[in-house]
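Key result, reporting period 2: structure in, sequence out.
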């Protein structure tokens, strides 16, 4: 009999929610066959069995939040091995190098008391760090004054103000502030999913605590790339087995602009500017349950074909819960293509720890003036949302102008 444990899906992950058991007690399980699904604040993923055998016991029901390396089930294996799966779980998914940087950018540095002298679990310290709470101000009810998750929740719900943050109307910087009761009439209630909770917390931190957001909009004349795509799409599909979309054109242009204006590709960590030499572009993928931003690493090194295949691959695996944790981390810049859903204009929020995010509206026909004459052109409104602590409006404008020039004067073959 061996133990099946909650895997650690990246260095910064300390717990996961079991969302679905794919096998039931008594079922035969093959090695590497999906055993259960989990949701963390970084990824939704299937967890494969480390050994073949029969599922004898399930110790954590669906919907249960489980700390990493805790036993969630027991498997009877045919060879009688009693080795625990814990060592493999600890090694699962290489720890993203920027995980701690992301955490630092998303929340103010806690005081020394909050990280050294206070007794609490890694989970409690992580929550305190994200919410900006000085744990030395929280009363612990555990043995020797140890602070539990319930102690921290009681502190926050009782009006405790996170360290270094002013309280604001409507519940401060909490992602789920108190609100007027809306349970009236004919209604139903469902708990918020783990993914939507994580998105809510991330957006509140990004918008209201970490980065002062400013958005700048430029108009791109996409008539040239519309013609290039139309002329190439059938042969492109035949040669590459995948459809040609507009995304790789914008990815190529963004990568070139990031090379020319590296500050847009930087992260602000405290008072340090981390300028990334790699150009890793996150691409937002909409799911039924929320939003993920898988990352195309070294995007500047890929051709249009390579970029299109990368976009298709990460989108498909995101929807099928096949992404690995390190594929959702280490982005240096992000793109959100809300134009795919018909929207022509938006002001998207920055994906931390990035300093900028590009939003793309739908390409649509519109009358514009060219040489004092009215012409019908294919137009896209591109929005660059910036962290105004690091990126100024002039730099944002130059970045967008670089992209516009590439898009409007496209001369690269896509075949």
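The corresponding designed sequence is given below.
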């Amino acid at each position: 009999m061996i133990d099946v444990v909650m895997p650690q899906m990246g260095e910064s992950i300390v717990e996961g929610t079991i969302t679905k058991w794919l096998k039931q007690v008594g079922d035969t399980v093959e090695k590497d066959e999906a055993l259960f699904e989990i949701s963390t604040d970084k990824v939704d993923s299937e967890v494969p069995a480390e050994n073949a055998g029969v599922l004898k016991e399930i110790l954590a029901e669906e919907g249960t939040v489980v700390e990493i390396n805790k036993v969630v089930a027991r498997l009877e294996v045919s060879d009688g091995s009693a080795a625990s799966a814990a060592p493999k779980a600890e090694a699962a998914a290489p720890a993203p190098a920027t995980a701690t940087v992301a955490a630092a950018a998303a929340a103010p540095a806690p005081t020394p008391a909050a990280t050294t002298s206070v007794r609490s679990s890694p989970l409690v310290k992580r929550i305190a760090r994200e919410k900006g709470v000085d744990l030395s101000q929280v009363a612990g009810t555990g043995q020797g004054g140890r602070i539990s998750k319930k102690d921290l929740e009681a502190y926050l719900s009782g009006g405790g103000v996170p360290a270094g943050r002013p309280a604001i109307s409507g519940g401060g910087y909490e992602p789920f502030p108190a609100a007027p009761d809306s349970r009236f009439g004919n209604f139903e209630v469902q708990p918020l999913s783990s993914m939507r909770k994580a998105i809510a917390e991330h957006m509140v931190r990004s918008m209201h605590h970490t980065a002062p957001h400013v958005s700048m909009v430029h108009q791109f004349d996409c008539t040239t790339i519309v013609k290039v795509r139309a002329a190439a799409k059938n042969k492109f599909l035949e040669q590459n087995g995948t459809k040609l979309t507009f995304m790789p054109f914008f990815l190529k242009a963004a990568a070139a602009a990031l090379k020319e204006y590296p500050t847009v590709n930087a992260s602000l960590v405290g008072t340090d500017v981390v300028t990334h030499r790699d150009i890793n572009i996150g691409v937002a993928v909409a799911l039924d349950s929320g939003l993920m931003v898988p990352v195309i690493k070294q995007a500047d090194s890929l051709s249009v074909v390579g970029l299109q295949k990368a976009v298709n691959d990460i989108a498909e695996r995101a929807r099928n819960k096949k992404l690995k944790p390190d594929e959702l981390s280490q982005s240096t810049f992000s793109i959100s293509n809300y134009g795919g859903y018909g929207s022509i204009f938006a002001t998207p929020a920055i994906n931390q720890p990035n300093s900028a995010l590009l939003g793309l509206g739908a390409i649509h026909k519109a009358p514009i003036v060219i040489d004092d004459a009215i012409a019908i052109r294919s137009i896209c409104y591109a929005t660059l949302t910036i962290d105004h602590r690091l990126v100024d409006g002039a730099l944002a404008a130059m970045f967008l102008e670089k992209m516009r020039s590439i898009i409007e004067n496209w001369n690269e073959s896509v075949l």
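DSSP finds ten helices and 19 strands in the chain. The longest strand covers residues 373-387. This case is discussed further under Risks and Mitigation.
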